[in-house]
Amino acid sequence: MRVAITVSIGALCALFATSASARPGNFPRGTVDQTYTAKKPNKPTGASFTGSYHAPGDPKANPPYMRKMVFYPPRGWRYDTSVPDRCTASDLEIELSGPSACPKSSRLGGGTTDGIIFEPVANAFEFTTYTNAFDIFNNAGEQVMVVQAGGFGYVVVRGRIGPDQSVTYESPTCFPAPPAGQRCARDYVLQLKSHSSMPAYTKGSRSYARTPPTCPRRRFWRARIKFWWADGSIDTAATDQPCRR
Q1: How wide is the angle at C-alpha 110 spanned by C-alphas 93 and 170, nearest 5°?
Q2: 0.85 exceeded by pTM
Q3: What is the DSSP letter of 172?
Q4: What residues pair up with 148 in beta bridges, in sequence order?
Q5: Across the strands, what pairs with 62?
Q6: How many CB atoms lie within 10 A of CB 10?
Q7: Do 194 and 200 contact (CB within 8 A), yes or no?
Q8: DSSP state of 59
Q9: For the chain, what are the domain ranges?
Q10: Taking 50 as the threshold, does the pLDDT of residue 34 lie above it?
């Protein structure tokens, strides 16, 4: 899911002496793309993410269940979670009230996630497909994704921001989602696609997200996204976004 909202392997990148173009990352289990609204160094920026997932080497078959995804921004990228207001509501409060549990001024963006809900006991058949909208809110050291799960209420997924500015999301594969760090007893919610968008958030001269202080000689910033899957496989994808020196 995002932000989140939502980080996918082996992207091929081309280096240009004077310019570079945006390049998504293709890998055996899908395609991802991470883009930024700013192309100059040290500027407030928004970001968007698009991902689609499938079986290894087979775009027409389902992927494994996703356990975790980690977004690694370009070196020098910075988040400042003290700039927006913060959503300090607990998971239970958000599950009961949805996005209204968070201040409107703490909202960073939103998106959608698509997938399949299987029969939960034996995964014997598809129960239904879904396209769920979500909102992304700010909190100290994390992004809070609030997913509207149809008639099931709301699901809370927290993206932890690390010292290296990476953002880690643990992907829920059941409903209700268990507490962070715990797995579902059975997997039956399968994610196939996700898209998120966060516009630049500024307050005076400060910003929530800021591009790296320099543009490399190759004239693009490289972000990486790493995935952990239920079958034990791990993928890493790279996406390149042009910058101006």
Answers
A1: 65
A2: yes
A3: P
A4: 154
A5: none
A6: 12
A7: no
A8: T
A9: 25-242
A10: yes
